[in-house]
Amino acid sequence: MRENSVKILGKDYLGQILQLTKQLNPTLTSSELESRQLQMFEFENYTCFGLFEDEVLIGVASGWITVRLYSDRQLEIDNFVIDSDLQSNGYGKLFITEIELWAKANNCKTVELNTYVQNDRSHKFYFNKGYRILGFHFQKKF
Asked: Where is each N-acetyltransferase domain found (predicted)?
């Protein structure tokens, strides 16, 4: 029987993290992903979560603890990805449930996230996990 576990990841998992985040961000170069991931590790409020199956990393997610006026202390999930070869097998549900438990244990009042507009599969997934749309996320590039 396979064993699943969720662990907090450090820079020692960088190569494996990048393999998975590349699946979510195929237009970014490997050097761009590496540079950004290393910068993320430098923030005190950043946590990188890893989902393992029998010690093989099969999912990653970034987490940012912040405080917002509308929600109080929150965990914002970012870059949530399960290896594309293993999607639709229940790993995402297991992974997000464990991340939510971690957020509760760390005194977060909410878990929040953004998902790409065109990613219909993720919308259904998050709705099924009890998430709701609060608004629109706007971006201005420089």
From this structure: 1-142
pLDDT at 49 over 70: yes
Q: What is the pLDDT of residue 1?
A: 58
On average, the pLDDT of the chain sits at 94
Please give the pLDDT value at position 28.
Answer: 95
Q: Compute the residue count for the chain.
A: 142
As a whole number, mean pLDDT of residues 51-80 equals 96
The answer to whether 13 and 52 are in contact (CB under 8 A) is: no
CATH number (3.40.630.30, 3.30.565.10, 3.50.50.60, 3.30.1360.120) of 4-128 reads 3.40.630.30
Burial class (CB in 10 A: 0-12, 13-18, 19+), 84: exposed
C-alpha torsion sign, points 54, 59, 126, 64: positive
Distance CA(48)–CA(96), nearest Å, equals 13
